[in-house]
């Protein structure tokens, strides 16, 4: 309540005889045990909420009593709780703006036109101020909803909730049974180019069903709905339905049911889609059903039920907490706390009326919702800009203005010109300047450690691989697979008939030429002797080369270790091409780790790494120190192991068009740099090919430098600018 009981402008309205318009409807609500009144304009669907003291004044507005009589009556009835004249003037202004106030004065047509223009400008300002969603009303769905609800008999309406719960139980059992089939390779199945096109067509249909869920719940509770249209969210047309009728309902459970109506119908669609999906044959129909499951199920669980976004979960939470306008009230409360505790303002600062237990919810919600909105806005902008760069830049400027520039400008105006801060302006400016300067100093000067996280696999040196040096046929396995072998020990023997035949021919030819040389010594002509010697030297050279090739058919252990060979029983008689991997000589002491790093982080890893730590996937609690011993200087899409890919449990997506999975080397979607790491201690993983988490610790630097680098790399990666 204001400290001044009287107003200097009271004489202008004291003789006014106000009353509510005929289309104004008043509802009584209870919020946290306190009584409040909601006034609805049935013509426009707009609402306003007033406390009991204000309702006492409104209830006396009958078109007969003057405003002076009404105020005096309120003072006698309410005592110390009576509103001041300024508060009654403010109440009249709010009723007037809500278009529910009528007086004994003749209507001013010019003022009505001005009011209509202000309403249009206000709506346009709301659309412009939100760059991520624009609403365009198109249709009055009330008659259609009445027709749809009319199909349900009165006794069936009472069983709808039980039927929905039974459907959800059945759906839960289906999801549990088909969980592996539903989630297997989910990312690549959803985001292939063909399936993304399906998403664009299915998403508006699923959201239309969602909005009809709200409307049907309103009708089942006896309400009305007169507005439906399209909302453009990140340039995608999405249906919306005006469910503001819920504000008129007294019981919060009914309001929560209207908020949940869309999600309930959407989840029912997801369950039906799962039932049809399991019976469908592979093809377009099965793909459409799978996308419907993902949209109707995942978007409900991730977005709609999330209270930090202004979707269904937000209104359900506000009704459950019994805090109307939760987001707006949280922002107002943060403003009050800042002025009262930080700036030291006491006089002229109206405390926000709070019920018991509201303050912690407002503080937490204000912080969480602001941060989450910024993250979501940034994600949408980058997603749009990746496809439509010019539109994305416009959206970024638009969002930056409305979410950063405009609030900062309003905050500065309040800081330098608000009469509330009179007498405290110096302290407020100093504290804000000190706070901003301190934050910039910490972010720009204080070094903070940073790291790059990636994954790697246990690797072996090339010497540990037993590889066929040439095409041949397997002859025999000399060493026992699984047994320990020594360096230089014979492991495998291959056979090549052509090489052996060639060896026999060359030996015979060598013998022949040696005999001819002996005969040539008795010949006085030296020409014949020289010709035979040249032929002999050529045969000896070919024999030496062929002997080396014959020797290569025997494969020896390059170092000591355990000889491992897949399917040794298939070796004899098998045709082997050059480069075929035949087995391994395993020595854990020689194991290393190969990891891949994206291009954006390769400079940090190469030049700013001060330490490397590893954690095994199956033993995350154990820390294994390591060091970099080798770096491949060029980027490549070749993936050293399928264990690093999404299909193998890793985080790297494979290029579906590369065909690397058909027997060749797997190809990643993006180019990567390979690093080889050596273990610093004797404790090391023993399983070849197992996956490890890798953490490269970098030289500490200020956060502003780290953020700038990340932003710069993001722009280079996505937009090449």
UniProtKB/TrEMBL annotation:
<dbReference type="GO" id="GO:0004222">
    <property type="term" value="F:metalloendopeptidase activity"/>
</dbReference>
<dbReference type="GO" id="GO:0005737">
    <property type="term" value="C:cytoplasm"/>
</dbReference>
<keyword id="KW-0812">Transmembrane</keyword>
<dbReference type="GO" id="GO:0031293">
    <property type="term" value="P:membrane protein intracellular domain proteolysis"/>
</dbReference>
<feature type="transmembrane region" description="Helical">
    <location>
        <begin position="159"/>
        <end position="179"/>
    </location>
</feature>
<keyword id="KW-1133">Transmembrane helix</keyword>
<feature type="transmembrane region" description="Helical">
    <location>
        <begin position="191"/>
        <end position="209"/>
    </location>
</feature>
<dbReference type="GO" id="GO:0016020">
    <property type="term" value="C:membrane"/>
</dbReference>
<keyword id="KW-0472">Membrane</keyword>
<dbReference type="InterPro" id="IPR001193">
    <property type="entry name" value="MBTPS2"/>
</dbReference>
<feature type="transmembrane region" description="Helical">
    <location>
        <begin position="256"/>
        <end position="276"/>
    </location>
</feature>
<feature type="transmembrane region" description="Helical">
    <location>
        <begin position="361"/>
        <end position="382"/>
    </location>
</feature>
<protein>
    <submittedName>
        <fullName>Peptidase, M50 family</fullName>
    </submittedName>
</protein>
<feature type="transmembrane region" description="Helical">
    <location>
        <begin position="288"/>
        <end position="305"/>
    </location>
</feature>
<feature type="transmembrane region" description="Helical">
    <location>
        <begin position="429"/>
        <end position="448"/>
    </location>
</feature>
<dbReference type="InterPro" id="IPR041881">
    <property type="entry name" value="PqqD_sf"/>
</dbReference>
<feature type="transmembrane region" description="Helical">
    <location>
        <begin position="388"/>
        <end position="409"/>
    </location>
</feature>
